[in-house]
Amino acid sequence: MIKEKFSEGDSLLHNLDPRIKIIVALFFSVSVAVIDKYNSLFFALLLAIFLIIVSKLKVKEIISRLLVVNSFIFLLWLMLPFTLPGEIIYTLGSLSISREGIHYVFLITLKSNTIILATLALLSTSSIYNLIHALSHFHVPDKLIHLFFFTFRYLQTIHSEYIRLNNALKIRGFKAQTNFHTYRTFAYLIGMILVRSYDRSKRVYDAMLCRGFKGKFWILDHFTFKQSDFVSGIIMISCIIGLVLWS
Amino acid sequence: MHISEGILSAPVLITGAGLTATAVGYSLKKIEYKEVPKVAILSSVFFVASLIHVPLGPASIHLILNGLTGLLLGWSAFPAILVALALQGILFQFGGITTLGINTLNMALPAIICFYLFNQGVRSKNNFIAQILAFLCGFLAVLLSGIMVAVVLVFTGEGFLQAAKLLLIAHFPVMILEGVLTTFCIGFLRKVKPEILSIG
What we know:
The complex is a heterodimer of chains A (247) and B (200).
Chain A (H helix, E strand, L loop, with lengths): L11 H4 L2 H17 L3 H18 L3 H25 L4 E5 L2 E4 H24 L5 H10 L4 H30 L8 H31 L16 H20 L1
Helix pairs in contact in A: 2-5, 2-9, 3-5, 3-9, 4-5, 6-7, 7-8
Chain B lengths: L9 H21 L5 H14 L3 E4 L2 E4 L3 H8 L3 H16 L7 H19 L8 H30 L4 H10 L1 H21 L8
Antiparallel strand pairs in B: 1-2
C-alpha cells in the first residue's frame, strides 16, 4: 500500500493549518535553494532539525527516508569531485579531485537534506487530502485540484490492482530476468492495468453524473484559522527572513 | 530522472517553473470536466508504473514511460505528470517543491513531442511500422528527457558538462528498455483496446 506514514500524529505541526504549512515550506525551500553561504545553510539545517523534533516523527523512519534520497546524492559524490574543473587538491592515478567539486557536492548535500527534512516536518504531517484542500484556497485552478484528488484516490486502487496482477505472475512461477519474455510480461501487465483503468474512469465519471456532478467538489470539512496558527506562522516566516537577510 | 533539490541555480528553477505553469495552464483549458477522471486515473497508472522495477543485467531500473504517457494523454500529459511528481515528492521525498517545475518540464515536454511525432503512426494499419514507431517513441522520450536534464545541468554550471555527459551515456540502456516496453505495450493495446490509442 502507498501510505501517508507521517500524516497521523499529534504534535504542534500536525495540528497546524495546512495553508500556513504550505506557505512556510515553499518559502523555506526556495530560500535554502538560493542561499550559497555555509553558515546560513547550517542555521537552516538546524531549523529543519528543530521542526522534525517538534513534529515528533519517528527518527528511524526519517533516517530511512533520508538514506534513499542520499543514495542519489552519493552518485554525485562519485562524479562531481572528479569532473568539476578547479584547484586540484588530490590526485588519484589519472583522476584528480578538485576543491570546487568537493565544495559543490557538499553544498548540494546540505541543501537537499535541509529541504527534505523541512518538507517532511511541514508537508508530510498533513494528509494529502488536507494539502489538496489547502491548495484550493490558493486559487489553484479547479481542474488541477480535481486531478490531484482523483489521482491520489485512484493511486491506492491501481496500486492494489498491480499487486494483484503481480501475485498472479508469481503464482505462475514468473521470475523477472533480463530477457524479452520479462519485458513483454511487464509491458502486458501495464497494458492490462491501462485497459482496466480506462474502463474504470468511464464508470467513475458516470457515477459522478448520477450524483449530480456539475464541475464543483463540495468540501464539508473546513479549516478554522486559530490564533496559534497565526503565531507559529509569523515565527517561522520571520526565522526564514532572518536566514535570507543573514546570508 | 529527477533532479534533487539544491543542485540547480535559481534562474534555471524559475524558468522551469514558469514554462511548466504556462503549459499546465494551457492544457487545463483544453481538458473538459468529463475528461478529468480519465486523465487522473492514467496519471496514477504512470505513478504506479514508476514503482515497478525491471531487471537490466545486474541492476534494476524503474520505468519512466513518459513516451507512452504522451501518446495516451497528449497535452494532458503536462498536468498528469505534474500531479504525479508532486505526489511522489510528498509521499516519498523524490524531488521537491523548488524542482517540481523543471522536473515536470523535463518529463512532460518530451512526452508531448512524442505525441505529435507518433500519435498517427502507432495507429497505422501496418503492424510493422506501428511497432518501429512505438519503439522510437519510448526511446526518444527518454533520450529527450536525458538531453533536457543534461542541458539544465550545464546551464546551472559549465562544470557539470562531464557529469551531464556521463548521465546521458548511463541512460542509454534505459532508452532501449523503454523502447522495447513501449513497443510491447502499444502492441497489446492495439490488440486489446485500440480506442485507448485514439485519445489525446
